[in-house]
Prior knowledge:
The protein has helices spanning 24-32, 48-58, 85-96, 107-110, 125-130, 135-145, 161-175, 189-194, 210-214; strands at residues 18-23, 72-79, 101-105, 150-154, 179-182, 202-205. It is an alpha/beta fold and 233 residues long.
Amino acid sequence: MSVTISRTSRTEPPRKKIAVLIDGSAVYSASRSPEVGLRGAEDRRLNYFSLTEVLIRRVKGLTQATPSDDSSLWTMWTSAAPANTGQANFLEFTEQRLKWQVRRVLPRDALMIEPAALFIPTDASTTILRLSRFDASISFAMGRLADTHQIVVVSDSYPLFEPLRRINERWEQERGKCFVAFFGHSMENRWGVAFKDQHAPEFINLDDSEAELFGIEKKEVTKPLEKSSTQYY
Length: 233
């Protein structure tokens, strides 16, 4: 008598879904600021491959974006002028090499408020760049994705703390805590208080990886400028 043994095939558990939402204008502004730890090295550029690797090491389950795997979603919002060849080349690089989704916004539409309303002269380009933020778009994306993805935000914008906290409060047990990644030296003091909250996002301080991100020897990284002593409660 023959006996048939049935074998059940094991199915791989579904991969964890993670969404990385990047404020490209904020990252560019901070990386080019004279306050960055690499003061006096304005000719150096942030290595976006290294930025990807730093985040992958810190966020369990995160992988590089690939056309065949949608478990890790990378999206960047940025201010871009159609006639700017340098910006066009960079955005082509992020789309073709990094496989990020890119949301282009005209410079005038990326501003949180018109500079004239704050009496900022039109030639104050560094100050105006600080006004380019994509809080509304990133918050909308977080709300749409929070039910299915763990959220990683690359921005220094404090208004994003409240929606990140709400997401943790509701979905932390199921999806894992949200993350905020940015250069710590350029973030407002209010973040320091906010990170003490029970449902605060985990912080990835990119200052700790400056040597890798800018492709230099660690000894060249200088101490960041002292921050304001103002405290927020």
